[in-house]
Amino acid sequence: MTDLTVTNLTVKAGRTTLVEGAGFSLVPGELVALLGPNGAGKTSLLRAALGLEKRDAGTATLNGDDCARLSPMERARRVAYLPQQRPLAWPNAVRDVVALGRYAYGAAPGRLSQPDADAVDRAMETCDLAALAHRSADTLSGGELARVHCARAFAAEAPLLVADEPVAALDPRHQFRIMDIIQSYVARGGGALVVLHDISLAARYASRLIWMKDGCIVADGPPTETLTAERLAEIYGVRARVHGTLVHIEGAA
């Protein structure tokens, strides 16, 4: 079983500490939401945890192997990463964009082996993209493009997924659709760590919530234990009422 384990991780930029002493784990079967205000250090934590950004202290391992020492292809076979910025350099067909997810196995669009092509087909089906297979990616709506990026990540068929704000700028319907897709991936045996800003959405889907503020993880646990009005005041500086997975923000604290 592939596991991502981070211990006492610290990231600095010059004299500024972006992440300090952070630790968490991710295993298949979990859908974990990483929460915190802008500038809390969430993206730096994810990138350093995956070995994509230099860490100044601590450890980050995948199956016991130092993430920073893994080759890009080996890392991609163990964990699919969906970054916050997902530009498309040219107007590829949707299926070719999804096929880029097979990079971890040395594949290239237009030159897919049968196993690669089958993996792309499965990812397309999972994300309901069959009807868009030959559409140019630059003609898609925001919701459609979000599904394409998810399918690209799923095409690697890695046991873990790390997604940085996969529902950013989407309307509520498409936010639910993307989270349903990720939840389905977890139900099939994957493990997902997802950065979200919608607290109610996180509580609805996640089995665990990791809360960050000022570069530090301040809480990690189930929504029933960590989602409170006091926590929202501490993390976001807002007054809120919490009813199960529903959060009503009333204003600044």
UniProtKB/TrEMBL annotation:
ABC transporter domain residues: 4-239
Give the source's domain of life in one word: Bacteria
Keyword tRNA-binding assigned to the entry: answer is: no
Q: Which Pfam families match?
A: ABC_tran
> InterPro entries, per this entry?
AAA+_ATPase, ABC_transporter-like_ATP-bd, P-loop_NTPase
What keywords sit in the KW lines? ATP-binding, Nucleotide-binding, Translocase, Transport
* Any one GO molecular function term: ATP hydrolysis activity
The answer to whether the entry has keyword Glycosyltransferase is no
Q: What does this protein do?
A: Part of the ABC transporter complex HmuTUV involved in hemin import. Responsible for energy coupling to the transport system.
Name of the molecule in the record: ABC transporter domain-containing protein
The organism named in the record is Hyphomonas chukchiensis
